[in-house]
Amino acid sequence: MTESSIVIEELTGLNKAVKNIRISGQLDESNVDEKIQVIYKIFETTPKGVNMIFDLENLDYMNSKSIGYLTDLYGKVTESGGTVAIAKPKPNITDILQVVGLTQLIKTFDSMEEAKKYINENGSATTEAAIPTAPVTPVITTPVVTTPAPVTPVVTTTATPVVTTIPAPTTPITPAPVAPVIPTTPMATTTPVTPAPVIPTPATPVVTAQATPVAATPAPTTTPEITITPPTPSTPTA
Fold it and tell me: What is the CATH number of the domain that holds 24?
């Protein structure tokens, strides 16, 4: 846990009830929830209209949650009619307060005397008895934007009646008669080709002349008989 301390004292010599709250060390996630409760207890014991000066001279660091607590304390004091001031913050703390816009709500001074003067002139002098209230643990931190979960609409579905369709009787389909295809052009009749008869040419007879033998002794000459046999004509083929 980081070291830090919060000391509360009553300021005297003023015509107003003023609480001087001195914060030192570092306020962070490890200690701020515990340490800040001592400040909230003031509202249980102090009359309404209490005024507060936050002396931050020795405060070295503050996180976003401590800034949220400081903002909540400012709201509670002003609602009860009191006044809040900040005195002597370090430069880094001043930068943090300016970035979050807290210096526009709470007057900030470089000295305690200036802060006391401001409270003395503007603070509340009411000393009515305070109404005891239960300790309040604020949960104000750096603003967080919460995105709501999408709502799923409830859709009521109406049942659709089931309609049974009775098929119509099927009419048998009678095939149409097919007309025969009649050729428009008659086919030509093929005339058989008769081959022409082959007439053979008669062969010319060959006449063989027989030589007359020469004898040493002349004999009576006998004329030989020559027989000429003509060739037989061939039968034409159809």
Answer: 3.30.750.24
